[in-house]
Amino acid sequence: MPPSYPELNPSTRLLLGPGPSAVHPRVLRAMSTPLLGYMDPEFLTLLDETQALLRYVFQTSNALTLPVSGTGMAGMEAILANLLEPDDKILVCAAGYFGNRLEEVALRHGAAVTKIEKPWGEVFAPQEIDAALKQSPAKVVALVHAETSTGALQPLEGMAEVVHRHGALLVLDTVTSLGGVPLKLDEWGVDATYSGTQKCLGCPPGLAPVSVSDRAGAVIRNRNASRKPSAWYFDLELLAKYYGPERVYHHTVSGTLIYALREGARLVAEEGLEQRWARHRANAEYLWDGLKEMDLTPFVPLAQRLPTLTTVRVPEGVDEAKVRGRLRDEYGIEIGAGLGPLKGQVWRVGLMGYSSRKENVTLLLGALGEILK
Ligand code: PLP
Q1: Which of 221, 239, 269 is the last residue of a domain?
Q2: Nearest CA to ligand 1 atom 14
Q3: Pocket residues: Cβ below 6 A from ligand 1
Q4: CATH number, domain containing residue 128
Q5: CB-based burial of residue 295 (10 Å sphere; 0-12 exposed, 13-18 middle, 19+ buried)?
Q6: How far is ligand 1, taken at its centre, from the CA of residue 183, in Å?
Q7: Is residue 193 part of a domain?
Q8: Tens digit of each residue's pLDDT (9 = 90 or more) over 256-308
Q9: Ligand 1 pocket, mutate which of 144, 175, 193, 334 (most atoms under 8 A from CB)
Q10: Which of 241, 269, 297 is where one domain is finished?
Q11: Going along the chain, which residue ranges are E strands?
Q12: 171 and 33 in a common domain
């Protein structure tokens, strides 16, 4: 007998965790439209439009701006695999789970990693990067803009100046910041970045928007010819031949996910970046005010607190997993658990993209209040 299961009918969840966030209804609609072939001129126009929209969302004029197939980690792999040749030096700044991931991935691609670490939840100052580069020069410096494991927002002021003074390239993880908090690639001098679609862009997971400056593009072009990027699938020069005017087949890009991203990015453009950043900030502040009234304390001090993801200290004597379970089972709300050293210590509340709405915060605060009563 062949297996027989009921038709798919997942529960409705309010996704207020570290990601994925709620997919915007217009994105869901776009995803149910008919597929086009990956070389259909109509589809190629949609690709061009998606890239133009991504340049707006990233605030860049970088020609090499495209969605890599795969989730945020695919973007991380793509950027590191292309910029680093075996034994190249990279300085990784880690104050959380995703900073550590950068080290892990860079090592897999054969780089020589120097890591500076700070306690989880803290951020780096340009002087610290300067000191580290004086001690050990590097080709690439990697930072996480929005550390989803801690809820800290890394300031970028003065960062590129220091990195460039040392002749290095600045790589920035923007998975939890793109479309949710101010991010200006060109103005800030970021050389390469990768992000994901399932956080502040209101799309499902599956694409990793990346952007590479002309400077970083030249570094990729000038790689030692015998040392091609260590991952064929993520070779940005090959990908650019499909996404650029040459239109050379590389892999079968998911039309459905391109439709989703185009619609998600169109929504960003319609709302306007400034307004979108302000909405994310206002809803986060509404959450922080509500938490305060309930005597719940955010883990990260206000000055470096990330609007798109808040880590909330679990009160003494409270079973954090039980609270999350009740939120899910009784109220249909998902929030996240702490990672690494913050396991059991914090909850992670994401207010990203279509999930970042005042009524969602009201519902969460009400439900939390009922459970903790
Ligand atoms: N970087 C950061 C800051 C993230 O928050 C995440 C995922 O949560 C990633 C990288 C990896 O992205 P993904 O899980 O989409 O592969």
Answers
A1: 269
A2: 72
A3: 18-19, 71-73, 98, 144, 148, 173, 175-176, 196, 205
A4: 3.40.640.10
A5: exposed
A6: 17
A7: yes
A8: 999 999 999 999 999 999 999 999 999 999 999 999 999 999 999 999 999 99
A9: 175
A10: 269
A11: 14-15, 64-69, 89-94, 112-117, 140-144, 146-147, 152-153, 169-173, 192-194, 207-212, 309-313, 333-334, 336-337, 346-350
A12: yes
pTM flag (> 0.90): yes
The tokens for 349 are 């509340």
Instruction: Report the separation in Å between the CA atom of 250 and the middle of ligand 1, taken as the mean of its atom positions.
Output: 25
- Other CB atoms closer than 10 Å to residue 83's CB: what's the count? 26
Q: In DSSP terms, which residues pair with 152 in a beta bridge?
A: 147, 305
Same domain? For 105 and 211 the reply is yes
Q: Please check whether residues 68 and 190 belong to one and the same domain.
A: yes
User: Would you state the torsion angle of the CA atoms of residues 281, 364, 297, 336, taken in this order, to the nearest 10 degrees?
Assistant: -90
Q: Which domain holds residue 105?
A: 26-269
DSSP 284-297: HHHHHHHHHHTT--
Mutate to test the pocket of ligand 1, among 143, 145, 174, 176 (most ligand atoms within 8 A of CB): 176
Amino acid at residue number 365: L
> pLDDT tens-digit profile of 314-327?
999 999 999 999 99
Tell me: do 235 and 290 sit in the same domain: no
115 and 166 inside one domain: yes
Pocket test residue of 73, 97, 154, 172 for ligand 1, highest count of atoms within 8 A of CB: 73
